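#structure-requests
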Amino acid sequence: MKMKFKLLLVVLGMFMLTLLGCTKREGRAIVIKGTSTASPKPGTLTGTFVATGAFNTHGAGEMVVVPNGEDSIHCTYKLTAPEGDFQMVMDCENPPGMTGVWKIISGTGFYSGMKGHGTLVMMFPPDVPAGVISEETMTGEVWLRW
């Protein structure tokens, strides 16, 4: 009898773990559009951003651009909004490719514990002098801590 009771407890425990602890959280779609005041050359760029989708916000952006060989660049992008800030890393092709990937690496306030990743496209608007303004459109998914 004791053996059957123990087996029943084990089965119930596994069932509860399955229901409570093993659910997969799906990412929520996000689009982040950033505008910087310079082209992707080595150094620190400043600008603004707007995020829509999983959450809606806007604020200031600061991007540190580091060459990564002849054909690519690596950027660290800190986005500061009224609810907190989050930081991402981006790896992109130098022009003319101008595509890449991004990943969220940290956050504070509302964005504490947030994870995310996706793809990006850089553009230099044709109606402004070359190298004066760059735009990044990042699309992907985020997982908020709640």
